[in-house]
């Protein structure tokens, strides 16, 4: 927008005088009678950064229209009356200005006079104080004034008028801004180059990590071998070899060879999985066969321990007391009276009668009861071991199946699924950056990395979270493998440049 002279005074809270009108006219560089934002901001900065010398130069230049650097006494009189907004001549001021009686004053002489008598410029200085207070505060402009004195002293010399000075200063600032813009542009180009390099390095590192993970999975599968594992391991080795061959560069002329190699790879994958399941079955049967003997061994260790001995002693005596007590209930009168004393008071404590009886009794049934109690412990341990092994077998089978699914997903991402119609091909097999994706059915091509929907084989944009063809969400693996370059750049690259 623009403001008129009246709006200028109203906004700044200035009393309208001939001097303030003249200031408005000087700010209005295009002479339109209105100030646009650019004229206003440049004018405010210029006026608020005047020191006394520049204020003197500014006032002098108002009437030095011919730029001769000299004012006669009539022009000086008009200047003073305009500044103080009066129609009367101040003869004392005029006499002060024309101290040598020459009838004129140069710019240097005018500055020397105002320097020793600054009150001559008081209305101009008052207006400056109003503007400084209105915009940012006096202290801010005092700092800006010092900065102007340091950076633009050559352009503020008394040989240039106010408009020339500000024109030169604006030009300098414009050039500095253009230089800064170019610097930032160069910086962004360097950052972008670093981003591309970071993306390339990260992609290579991800491929290496995927390869290491795959090798680790295959290495884990080779642990704890049984005879059936030899065929399985050979199958995995053959599969890995086919996978490596399939991820090698192929050109469009070799597309049928690649597809045949892929069919062979997935057939080999099915064979390896079948052999892996046979291995799982055999090893599970081995663990189950060993479960009973392992349970008995653990029970034997427990029964030899102090805790085990204490438990068997307690359960044997308790069961003996119950057995004798039941028998005595059917015995003679004295036995029937004593029978209740043999029953346990509660589960964790023997009855007094049982304690006394087991101390004096040599009844052979005690050994039989002890053998029965030990057999109960052995049976519990065997059942627990079988249950533990069943859980291990189920967990192992589930984990191995998950491993095979994950290997399948890795192979599908790196070498293509069994049914995909997209092929990763190379223009130049010697140039690793010359790859593109080609659809065997449509002939469609995509340069660079291409995210393929795992459900419908459609192309997904790297930034999308789902396939818009079949509405299936992208898997975490798909999103992790194919990301846009914006997602690959590290903040470290930006931070290293101070951004």
What does this structure look like?
This protein has 499 residues and is mainly α. The protein has 19 helices and nine strands. Strands 5-6-7 form a three-stranded antiparallel beta sheet, with no helix packed on it. Strands 1-2 form a two-stranded antiparallel sheet. Strands 3-4 form a two-stranded antiparallel ribbon. A hairpin with an 8-residue loop joins strand 5 (422-426) and strand 6 (435-439). Helix 13 runs antiparallel to helix 14. The protein is elongated.
Uncertain parts: 483-499
Let me know the average pLDDT.
81
Distance between the termini: 34 Å
Note the total helix count.
19
- Helix content bin: 55-70%
Assembly status: single chain
Share of β-strand residues: 5-15%
What's the arrangement of strands in the largest beta sheet? 5-6-7
Helix/strand class: mainly alpha
The helix/strand order is EHHEHHEHHEHHHHHHHHHHEEEEEHHH
Number of strands: 9
Q: Main β-sheet: number of strands, strand sense, barrel status?
A: 3 strands, antiparallel
How would you describe the shape? Answer: elongated
Radius of gyration: 50 Å
